[in-house]
């Protein structure tokens, strides 16, 4: 499996990465006693990922800081987007939490106590989650043995938001922001769905609510991109649905479609160049890939912001593949060219 960012990662990070959106989701799914003690109005995102690089195709993660009754705490959110659940998720989450603590100690080397880390898994696969959410249950011990030595074993349980068990009525009632509601809905129903345009007819009001928010057009575009990448609706049906939402929505649809088309063409060019230089010429292959990614990024920037100044072109063509990938991921949601190339 590829370790590159998936469409699930992109929409999850774009929408749930906004503290106001994430706070609404946390208020909805965390235990009431915990929510009452968290100052979610001061939720702040922390950069970095703690998921194994080899599992990036399977999990995406976000980390936030939040005051917990006067003390610093952390909320660690992982989205599970694989077709079968992970029985070892309790262990993986424990390992990720330990990495969060390692990161905290590297920044606070004098600390003698650790901040609380609240772990949440958002599950959106086709089947309900049936595995355990606690570490004790993945240990290869008989229950009576566990009972005898339990106080010497790690105690850890993550909070689970199983979207497969949340029906449309419950999702409508969930007190979250419109972008979060639509993201959760799409995580549930969009993948491989040829009727996604018809299904979204019932959610037109929520889509309009996304557009009406400050910065809503960028969030709406991120949702469109996700639908286009994972759904299978005929293009004209989706276009017709979006057109009912007004000119801004339709413009976002056309721009998104153009950008996806340009990305596809550029990936094809990059693969062709790479194959042409694959006869043991590693440096030539890397240059071919970089040229292809740079060409794709320039096309996307031009579609999004108009003609690209020469100074920006020079920066793009001098960038590494890793930097080009990071900039490409920001094109659709950035407000200005400078925001992309920061």
For the record, the count of structural domains works out to 2
Separation of the first and last Cα atoms = 30 Å
Strand order of the largest sheet: 1-2-3-4-5
Poorly predicted runs are: 278-284
Number of strands: 5
- If you average the pLDDT, what whole number results? 86
Shape assignment: globular
Note the beta-strand portion. 5-15%
Radius of gyration: 22 Å
Number of helix segments? 16
What share of the residues lie within helices? 40-55%
What series of H and E elements makes up the topology? Answer: HHHEEEHEHEHHHHHHHHHHH
Largest sheet: 5 strands, mixed
- Strand pairing plus helix content: what structural class? alpha/beta
What does this structure look like?
The protein has 342 residues and is an alpha/beta fold. It has 2 domains: 7-168, no CATH class; 257-340, no CATH class. Helices cover 54% and strands 10% of the residues. The chain is built from 16 helices and 5 strands. Strands 1-2-3-4-5 form a 5-stranded mixed beta sheet, with helices on both faces. α1 runs antiparallel to α7 (178-189) and α1 (7-16) packs antiparallel against α10. The longest helix has 30 residues, at 247-276. The model is unreliable at 278-284 (pLDDT under 50).
Keywords:
single chain; 342 residues; alpha/beta; 2 domains; five-stranded mixed sheet; 16 helices; 5 strands; 10% strand; globular
Task: Compose a concise summary of this entry.
This protein has 342 residues and is an alpha/beta fold.
